[in-house]
Design brief:
Layout lengths: L25 H4 L28 E8 L4 H4 L4 E6 L12 H4 L5 E2 L2 H13 L5 E4 L5 H13 L6 E5 L5 H4 L8 E4 L6 H8 L4 H16 L3 E3 L8 E11 L5 H15 L4 E5 L20 H14 L4 E3 L19
Parallel strand pairs: 2-4, 4-5, 5-6, 6-8, 8-9, 9-10
Antiparallel strand pairs: 1-2, 1-3, 7-8
């Protein structure tokens, strides 16, 4: 779906991070409103929020990850840290073990900072923060410590898109690449699948803030990779759901009409009908090749040049990592 662009990349000057040095968990978690749920849980006192997490950092895996888009994973992998809990809890979630079942291990902020540096030492192309919304204050501290101690690779914020703009602003200057989902356009569909009737309004505002922070894509060739690596910018993902082509087209049209080709769009067909949602009729099957190709054709005719699509048959569980506490 078009070619990569290539520009010079200048790493963030440390002096630009000064404002984020004032972020403290206690300022945000005694009455938690970090995400649009605004559940007001006192997570400092051990109360769990909608995300099922207290203020204590928890993660399930920190390792090289090879299943992101080529410009993120490259040949040496993305340094993915999978955080426990989630503020969305989509009924079809393929990472439900960490999103809803509280699989994870508690780690300190200092340990998280060390993990970032360890992943860099393993030649990760980037640090990939997977579902970190409910731990943004702690992540900010860990990132700034790691940067002071030698972290130089880009930082990726990998999210379901259901974010508060005020929370994202804490990450300004710390994150180089935003990797959000834009899952739904219809409030009816977002309510049914994610109990989030305001999903599109919140996610579209969040994506606007992300774009403000990082701007158009910047690529840099890597000697060991056949394709350029994304060093700064935004790549928005959309997972095609069975029978929801009309909603997918509205999502993709919105992205193109708003950002043109100043962002990348990843159109995914990896939806997997797992056993625990067998009683949801329209979700109890895979996306057909016809459905998926129809969305790709629509995107091409719309004018999208910067994008990714999936080939073959990725709709199985082989791409779901083992949440075995590796690297923690």
């Amino acid at each position: 779906m078009g070619k990569y662009t290539s520009n010079d990349y200048k790493r963030t000057d440390m002096s630009e991070l000064t404002d984020n040095f004032q972020v403290l968990p206690e300022d945000y978690m005694a009455d938690c409103t970090l995400c649009p749920r605004k559940c007001h849980a006192n997570r400092l006192q051990g109360v769990t929020g909608y995300c099922s997490q207290t203020a204590e950092l928890s993660a399930a895996r920190a390792a090289l990850h090879f299943w992101e888009e080529p410009c993120i994973s490259g040949s040496s992998g993305s340094g993915a840290v999978f955080f426990s809990g989630c503020n969305m809890k989509c009924i079809f979630c393929q990472n439900h073990g960490i999103a809803t079942e509280n699989i994870g291990r508690h780690i300190s902020i200092d340990r998280l900072s060390e993990i970032f540096l360890e992943l860099q030492a393993k030649h990760a192309n980037n640090i990939n923060l997977v579902t970190a919304t409910h731990f943004i204050p702690q992540v900010c501290i860990a990132l700034r410590k790691a940067k002071v101690n030698g972290l130089t690779i880009p930082v990726v914020y990998n999210t379901g898109g259901y974010e508060e703009v005020s929370s994202l602003r804490l990450l300004d200057g710390l994150v180089d690449i935003y990797l959000p989902d834009l899952k739904y356009y219809s409030s009816e569909l977002s309510t049914l699948c994610s109990n989030a009737p305001d999903y599109f309004d919140k996610a579209s505002a969040a994506i606007s803030e992300m774009y403000r922070q990082v701007g158009p894509p910047v690529f840099e060739a890597a000697a060991s990779d056949t394709a350029p690596l994304l060093k700064k910018g935004m790549l928005v993902r959309h997972l095609v759901l069975p029978g929801q082509s009309r909603d997918s087209k509205k999502v993709i049209r919105y992205l193109y009409e708003t950002y043109g080709n100043d962002i990348y769009v990843s159109i995914m067909k990896q939806y997997t009908p797992l056993s625990y949602i067998a009683d949801v009729p329209f979700l109890n099957r895979r996306v057909t090749e016809e459905e998926y190709n129809r969305i790709l054709t629509f995107s091409s005719r719309l004018g999208i040049e910067n994008g990714f699509c999936q080939e073959g048959d990725p709709a199985d569980e082989s791409f779901i990592p083992e949440f075995d506490f590796e690297g923690l």
